[in-house]
Design a protein that fits this description.
The protein is mainly alpha-helical. The protein has one domain. Helix 1 packs antiparallel against helix 2. The chain starts with a helix and ends with a helix.
């Protein structure tokens, strides 16, 4: 009996150990499964929050890019308008310069005609008056040539000043168009 009892007790201990191990394994499996399930649920919740945040960020980025694109187009349109206005002003200045040059040509023609008339006048044919007339004609020729050259130089300076003024005003308007709306 003693051997039967010892064997029975050993089997009982073995069965108890086996049942305890099985219960421990089942408990661990349930715990691990619950832990992983909770971790998965938690991760899934965070993934949803991150996806929502990323979606909002993308929408905000798209909106900002659209605003920037619109602002850039507005600026470019204003600069294009300033450029077109400056070109119109330059064309007008060139036309005015051409009219001024035509007027200067007419003035030169008139001066040339007056010089011819003085050279051909009857008073220059007289001997005593001839010397005075010749001096007067020479002085008149010199002043006429001086007037022609100064008028030509004044026209060139005026044309250069007009171009510089138009370019400066166009630059100022372009700068104002970009800076004033950016503030």
């Amino acid at each position: 009996m003693y051997l039967g009892t010892v064997m029975k007790t050993r089997y009982q201990l073995l069965i108890i150990a086996f049942v305890a191990a099985a219960l421990g394994g089942i408990g661990y499996a349930l715990h691990y499964n619950g832990y992983e399930s909770g971790k998965f649920d938690d991760n899934q919740a965070w993934n949803i929050k991150w996806a929502e945040r990323d979606g909002k960020d993308l929408l905000e980025l798209a909106g900002r890019q659209e605003q920037e694109r619109t602002e850039e187009q507005r600026r470019q349109n204003e600069i294009n308008q300033v450029t077109a206005d400056a070109q119109t002003q330059l064309d007008k200045a060139r036309l005015d310069a051409a009219h001024a040059e035509h007027s200067a040509d007419q003035l030169q023609l008139t001066i040339t005609n007056i010089r011819r008339q003085l050279a051909a006048s009857e008073t220059s044919k007289l001997s005593s008056a001839a010397t005075a007339g010749a001096a007067r004609a020479t002085a008149t020729d010199m002043f006429a040539q001086l007037l022609i050259e100064s008028d030509k130089a004044a026209g060139e300076y005026a044309a250069a000043a007009d171009r510089a003024r138009i370019a400066g005003l166009a630059c100022e308007r372009s700068y104002d168009a970009v800076v004033n709306h950016a503030e």
